[in-house]
Amino acid sequence: MELQEIIDRSRRVVFFGGAGVSTASGIPDFRSENGLYASEFEGLTPEMILSQSFFYLNPEGFFRFYRRFMLHPEAKPNAVHRKLYELEKADKLRGIVTQNIDGLHKATGNRRVYELHGSVHENYCMDCNAFYPMEKILHSEGIPRCDHCGGVIKPWVVLYGEAPDKYTVMGACRELSNADALIIAGTSLSVEPAASLLDYFHGKYLVVINAEPISADERATLVIRGDVAEVMDRVVMNG
Ligand code: NAD
Ligand code: ZN
To answer: Which pick of 121, 166, 201, 214 has the fewest CB atoms within 10 Å?
Structure first.
């Protein structure tokens, strides 16, 4: 069965995405050939730097890496984000569960977005909880400090070693358990809770769109090996 037919036959589609969804927007993923994991920074891997322990041990180093590689103010939504917006407007798409922290689904206008790993657009003072947009981090130097109390500003991004937000995970589980079709795209599924969340899906059609094989392939109704932006761009809204 083709992807178009699955979408036509479904009423509650959920999209579960990862970094591959945003590569067409110019944001590198982690584990592809050109991904960030292919390189080392000051002798450390991205996984080491983006960890809770590193954040507390060496906040200057953390923010140096974070500003340079995790913030992409110039990135614009691509064909995947746009198609998902149309699908939500047409009442086909129930929700988007994403591991991305770039905020591009919300920027496109989608409303039911579950950002499992948080968002670079939300930053909070660790002492007084004051909110700051991404620009505050981008345009500060060294460790970003709160205007009100001088506390350290921490991005609302789930670092390795940190637990994801409970309510976001609960919302994602609810959407997955109510879905009749699930599209998994642009993710290696190697970061928890992604892989185990998928067990909440008991719907009819499971589609995987990814450039390389992933663990979910074996349970899928349809596996499309290719570029998610090209594949989603071809989807049309019927009825
Ligand atoms: P990952 O890098 O582990 O895996 C990406 C997967 O997508 C790979 O299997 C790759 O083959 C595939 N892929 C890449 N481009 C594709 C394309 N155009 N079409 C189809 N498939 C494509 O990413 P992940 O599984 O999302 O997990 C990585 C972690 O990295 C997450 O925690 C996430 O928060 C973080 N991250 C986020 C961003 C972002 O916000 N845009 C970018 C990089 C990393
Ligand atoms: Zn403060």
So the answer is: 166
Q: Which amino acid is at 189?
A: L
What is the C-alpha to C-alpha distance for residues 90 and 79, in angstroms, rounded to an integer? 16
Same domain membership, residue 218 and residue 128:
no
Joined tokens for residue 224: 């499309």
Same domain (yes/no): 146, 62: no
DSSP conformation class of 221? S
The pLDDT tens digits for 66-103 are 999 999 999 999 999 999 999 999 999 999 999 999 99
Euclidean distance between CA atoms 36 and 41, whole angstroms: 10
- Distance of alpha carbon 134 from alpha carbon 131, whole angstroms: 10
- Whether 238 is covered by a domain: the verdict is no
Question: Mutate which of 21, 27, 29, 162 to test ligand 1's pocket (most atoms within 8 Å of Cβ)?
Answer: 29
- Tell the residue number behind the tokens 């009819």, with chain if given: 204
The residue whose CA is least distant from atom 6 of ligand 1 is 187
Report the atom number in ligand 1 closest to the C-alpha of 212: 11
Nearest residue (CA) to ligand 1, atom 18: 227
The whole-angstrom separation of Cα 29 and Cα 17 is 12
Q: Is 82 left (phi over 0), alpha (psi -120 to 50) or beta?
A: alpha
117 is catalytic: yes
Distance (Å, rounded) from C-alpha 61 to C-alpha 237? Answer: 47
Domain that holds residue 51: 36-70
